[in-house]
Specification:
Strand content: 25-35%
Structural class: alpha/beta
CATH superfamily of the largest domain: Glycosidases
CATH architecture of the largest domain: Alpha-Beta Barrel
Bound molecules: acetamide, zinc ion
């Protein structure tokens, strides 16, 4: 008896993602074979049909879906009385005699089916038949329901277009992860992507932009028309295709929430229907347009009644296509400078008693809100819709942090959380790691329990300015979407990153079989820098994704599939760099990391407190070489910061001197910047944070002896929002901006 229960406890829990609320292992296994039947009738029948489809490709079994109970069946049954499970919860009991899934609603049965798929061998996700496998699932009991009702992913199909086939795959992947909302960002400056019968020019003109030189630029958005003979990029979905996708999603218990962006991000709308533009004096308009580098401004006129009518007519067709309760109207990032000089906008403000342009935007959104409410729908918008006064029926999608969500929830409005801190999957993994996403709790601590109920859930967004292929979407999405799925499904108290990471190893195998090109983590060096003469050598942790190995070079070149495979500490005989990347058997490759091997000698006592700073002007896209600063004037400073250069766009700055290490120990330096930066120790680049980017922090950890070491930091700034921070951490020093006491120079 005791032995048996010990066995049960030590049986590994299956790698379910998202983890269920409750899982109890039982003795034995259930085996699926060609004789298995699916018992499902009435409202359970469509879910039974789905299950049959899910199981068919890998098993080759044509399992009948029947109403006749049978031994060793998979039975799906609606049981309305189990109200504690809510609209999406389910129970699953697996025994050697059969599997039973019960739920109050079909959606719950569907999620039970997703758990069943994950109880089976990972090969069940194969698209081709596997032979010679036993399709077993552990005996167990699962009682499960989601923490949140809004479990979403967004995709921007405007900046880059994604075809119907890909959208369906995207929906398949959401279903695997028990997500229930697909936010389809259908229109934006990059192109209008949905057929609107009343306004055909939206897709004859607005869906096709002149091919840009770069992958994307916010200027140079030109829409010459589909038949112009120009080199164009774009595309759109016909209404038939939209209906097909909405049905495909509904069959998987996923609601498609369409977004029709207004009144900003509308360059493509104005290219199609210029009469929706503001009408200030011609020279003012011409100068404005010239400054944007586009054919048209990005905001429609909020003063003209015809603009309101236009969008309501568009929404009339949208409502026919999308049964979603929520209709997203955008509302974000609308520049209002043309409104301030447009007679129509000003007349509207006068007539309605609106004090400023924010209130004009609010007025415009109110018009949409009451119109949608009249049709039995609810308006959803980005958190800018709070500005100038929130419309009475509006639900807020909080993206510029969580403040908008908090304000709206406190005011009694529903909110969906999607902050840039955790939910922007177009941001690199170095800014938003899978672990950061995993740790997300959609309910801000500031809210009372009652206010917290207004948080419907969370979603992640994939903006596609710089994401132009399905593979790139997949890489940005996974494994972060798996982490998000657990953050919105599994009770917060049950989440455990170490446990999730372990389950993720199995889940990667599923993602492989689903054909998803997920993000492969770069090799993790045991030590960020090796000082020449260290006994250690450069060492890497074992890759965390299956079927992969680390390959490296020592000549500074990019590692390739032909570079030597890492098998143990790499030792160099002179200063240099070890570059390494993780390679998958299927050919995908991680980012490359560099581990400097450097000679670093403590120097003879620099006497002057502070380091030398030099600033040069120029338009850089990477850190200039130190020599470029030779003729700039030098100034002694005791902090590494550019706050005094705020607003001075297009410059580069260099700090040079010695970093004083007060005692022997392991020190960590973190260099954060917007845009790029680099740090040298001695003659070696120790932190490489180069390139144009938003604020990114990179870290360096190394063992140092007491002494003064030559160092240098270079940073450049382009396109606003400059920021530079150097943190130090070591014995007796918690992570803080590098103190003046560590900054020294000789003269
Ligand atoms: C947004 O990212 N502009 C909502
Ligand atoms: Zn106007």
């Amino acid at each position: 008896m005791i032995l048996a229960s010990l066995c049960l406890l030590s049986a590994p829990l299956p790698a379910l993602i998202p983890a269920p609320e409750r899982y109890v292992p039982l003795a034995g296994t259930f085996e699926l074979d060609s004789k298995t039947v699916i018992v499902a009738t009435g409202d359970a029948k469509p879910v039974g049909d789905r299950l049959r489809e899910f199981l068919r490709p890998a098993t080759g079994f044509e399992l009948p879906v029947t109403g006749i109970p049978k031994n060793r069946a998979i039975e799906l049954r609606i049981e309305n009385q189990d109200v504690s499970l809510g609209a999406e919860g389910y129970r699953l009991v697996s025994t050697p005699e059969g599997i039973t899934i019960t739920a109050p609603k079909p959606a719950g049965l569907f999620y039970g089916v997703q758990s069943l798929r994950q109880l089976l061998p990972t090969q069940i996700f194969d698209k081709k038949k596997d032979t010679g496998l036993h399709w077993t699932a552990p005996a167990c009991q699962i009682i499960d329901k989601p923490s949140f009702g809004w479990r979403g992913m967004h995709l921007d199909v405007s900046r880059h277009f994604y075809d119907v086939k890909f959208i369906k795959e995207y929906i398949d992947w959401l279903a695997v992860h028990k997500m229930n909302t697909f936010h389809w960002h259908l229109v934006d400056d990059g192109g209008w992507r949905i057929e609107i019968k009343k306004y055909p020019k939206l897709t004859q003109i607005g869906a096709w932009r002149e091919k840009q030189k770069a992958e994307w630029s916010y200027s140079g958005l030109i829409f010459p028309g589909k038949d112009s003979g120009k080199d164009l990029e774009g595309g759109f979905y016909t209404q038939d295709q939209v209906r097909e996708i909405v049905k495909y999603a509904a069959d998987r218990y996923i609601t498609v929430v369409p977004e029709i962006e207004m009144p900003g991000h509308s360059t493509e709308t104005l290219a199609s229907y210029p009469e929706l533009m503001c009408s200030p004096a011609k020279d003012v308009l011409d100068a404005y347009i010239k400054r944007t580098g586009n054919d048209y401004p990005s905001m429609v006129c909020a003063g003209k009644e015809s603009t309101v009518e236009f969008f309501q007519n568009v929404l009339t067709e949208i409502l026919q296509l999308f049964p979603s309760k929520f209709i997203h109207i955008g509302g974000d990032e609308c520049p209002k400078d043309l409104w301030a000089v447009c007679p129509d906008c000003q007349a509207r403000m006068q007539k309605e008693g609106l004090k400023n342009e924010e209130e004009l935007q609010s007025y415009f959104i109110h018009r949409m809100d009451s119109w949608l409410a009249n049709k039995g729908r609810r308006l959803l918008g980005w958190d800018e819709i709070l500005e100038g006064g929130l419309a009475p029926g509006a639900t807020v999608m909080s993206w510029r942090g969580i403040a908008g969500g908090i304000a709206a929830a406190k005011a009694g409005h529903d909110v969906v959380m999607s902050p840039t801190s955790h939910c922007y999957f177009d941001y690199p993994y170095t800014s938003i790691s899978t672990e950061v996403v995993y740790g997300y709790d959609p309910i801000p601590g500031e809210l009372t329990e009652e206010q917290g109920k207004h948080v419907l859930g969370a979603q992640a967004n994939i903006w596609t300015e710089w994401i132009s292929s399905p593979e790139e979407v997949e890489t940005m999405m996974f494994p972060r979407a798996a982490a998000l799925a657990e953050a919105v499904w599994t009770p917060f108290q049950r989440k455990d990153w170490a446990d999730f990471s372990e389950r993720l190893k199995t889940h990667y195998d599923r993602l492989d079989r689903l054909g998803i090109a997920y993000y492969v983590t770069a090799p993790t060096p045991i030590s960020d820098v090796i000082l020449l003469g260290d006994a250690a050598g450069v060492e890497f942790n074992k890759p965390d994704v299956p079927n992969s190995l680390v390959r490296y070079t020592i000549d500074g070149s990019e590692p390739t599939a032909n570079s030597p495979a890492y098998s143990g500490a790499i030792r160099l005989s002179k200063p240099g760099v070890v570059r390494a990347a993780t390679f998958r058997a299927n050919g995908t490759k991680s980012a490359t990391i560099s581990v400097p091997v450097m000679l670093l000698n403590a120097n003879d006592e620099p006497k002057v407190n502070g380091v030398i700073r030099r600033v040069i002007q120029g338009k850089f896209d990477k850190c200039p070489e130190p020599a470029a600063f030779a003729s700039a004037s030098a100034r002694n400073v005791t902090e590494v910061s550019v706050t005094d250069l705020a607003g001075k766009d297009e410059f580069a700055v260099m700090y040079e001197g010695f970093v004083r290490i007060p005692e022997d120990g392991v020190y960590t330096f973190s260099l954060g910047s917007d845009d790029g930066s680099k740090m040298w120790l001695g003659d070696s680049i120790a932190i490489d944070n180069d390139g144009p980017h938003g604020y990114v922090e990179k870290r360096l950890r190394l063992q140092l002896k007491k002494g003064d070491y030559p160092f240098r930091v270079v940073m450049f700034e382009i396109d606003g929002a400059e920021n530079l921070r150097l943190f130090a951490e070591g014995p007796g020093l918690t992570k803080s901006l590098i103190p003046a006491s560590m900054l020294w120079s000789k003269e």
